[in-house]
């Protein structure tokens, strides 16, 4: 396609995708760093499957998708966090059970109510065409809340992530901050699913943090680098997918992968 | 006046009592070493003292104006910490968090406190290094600096020298000794090292087979429990 950048930006769906994509990328990268370090990487994946189940339900009942899925995913986030620490099933197993069950329920519900429609298809693989202006506003509001809370509790989130027992022992309410992390993750996952799709949203959360950790060595530099690089990958991915006419979510993940490889090489050279 | 008082404390792990009817008290400035075989409940007791685990009977009381946000704690290292990207300064600063109000950023006073503690443990030159790239001994010093940021009266240490070589361990004990003597900070330390404990501590708590010994170092040397324990080693 030979559209100029200006022409590309004049498409309303591209504007919406960028307006939603950039703040979601920021949120995902910031939370991702904590989730990776707390060994919760798979929670994002589990939550996205729960999100899909919730969307299928919403579609079957003819309800607004985001308004239904947000509370369900938040509740599951708390639930996952709880069972992944104090139960007889270990964390990995618990997440696998929850995520595959949610996906299965979603698929059963859809097949009863008439098969996969375009909405659900786009939630599975992500679509920037499905964003309504209402979604855009809601996403912006929620992203600002996530960013604000993250910045406000930044130091405490660091402390709880680095050493939960120390925080608890010295009188910081570590459990409350874990809840905060779970809540923010749930919101980010639901918002990110719109563009990335259920199957790929967890990579938006995990990739930037892991990539940044190849090269950077302090928490702050990892967080900042992850945020910048996540936004860069989402914007590049969106533009590339427009010109190459490829699936948006998948293109973004591929750009992330390229970044990861480059950072790994740089990190390897730096270490030597 | 006692800073810490345990009265008739029983703690259990998965409904099996680890130790029973433990009573002791510590004054400000005391140095207590907790000895005992693996599984005798040393770490459980530390967790109880910190409020991380509940006691199944009895009471643990802090007094003399000590509140929970004034306790410093040096945990056993967890595998998570070992590969965490964090600078030394970030780790040490996080020790000041417990006494912070809601303000999201560190104030000058907290930064100064972190700097002072880095200086005190002679790791100031490592301030901007990456925590995971340090040697085991240096990492322990960083965690000790963090614990010192969190306390001005009581420091709990859970086997702080595990995995360190003898020279580094000796240096580390010396640091703790200084903190106890010079700054009058009460120390409670879980240790495997009987010889060192007898040298530095003022009091010994020995946990074994649900019975416990508590007393001064001199009393401990005369007791039968210590003879068995020292002879085995």
Short description:
Chain A is mostly helical and 272 residues long. Helix content of chain A is 82%, strand content 0%.
Blueprint (SSEs and pairs):
The complex is a heterodimer of chains A (272) and B (233).
Chain A: H1 5-10, H2 12-37, H3 41-60, H4 65-83, H5 91-112, H6 118-125, H7 133-152, H8 154-162, H9 164-169, H10 174-196, H11 201-215, H12 219-244, H13 248-271
Helix pairs in contact in A: 2-7, 2-10, 2-11, 2-12, 3-4, 3-5, 3-6, 3-10, 3-11, 4-10, 6-10, 7-10, 10-11, 11-12, 11-13, 12-13
Chain B: E1 2-13, E2 16-27, E3 31-36, H1 42-50, E4 57-62, E5 71-74, H2 79-82, H3 88-94, H4 108-120, H5 136-150, E6 154-158, H6 166-183, E7 186-190, H7 194-200, E8 203-208, E9 211-216, H8 217-222, H9 224-232
Parallel strand pairs in B: 3-7, 3-8, 5-6, 6-7
Antiparallel strand pairs in B: 1-2, 1-4, 8-9
Can you offer a commentary on this structure?
The complex is a heterodimer of chains A (272) and B (233). Chain A is mainly alpha-helical and 272 residues long. Chain A has one domain (5-267): ABC transporter involved in vitamin B12 uptake, BtuC, CATH 1.10.3470. Chain A contains 13 helices and no strands. Chain A has helices at 5-10, 12-37, 41-60, 65-83, 91-112, 118-125, 133-152, 154-162, 164-169, 174-196, 201-215, 219-244, 248-271. Chain A is globular. The mean pLDDT of chain A is 87. Chain B is 38% helix and 27% strand. Chain B is built from 9 helices and 9 strands. Chain B starts with a strand and ends with a helix. Chain B is α/β, with parallel strands linked by helices. The model of chain B has no long low-confidence stretch (mean pLDDT 82). Chain B folds into 2 domains: 1-66 and 153-233, Rossmann fold; 78-151, no CATH class. In chain B, α3 (88-94) packs parallel to α5 (136-150) and α4 crosses α5. In chain B, the strands form 2 sheets. Chain B has a 6-stranded mixed sheet, sandwiched between helices. Chain B has a 3-stranded antiparallel sheet with strand order 2-1-4, covered by helices on one side. Chain A binds chain B through residues 37-39, 151-156, 158-159, 161-163, 165-172, 213, 216-222, and chain B through 50-52, 67-69, 71-73, 75, 78, 80-81, 84-87, 90-91, 93-95, 97-98, 104-106, 128, 130, 132-133, 146-147, 150-151, 156.
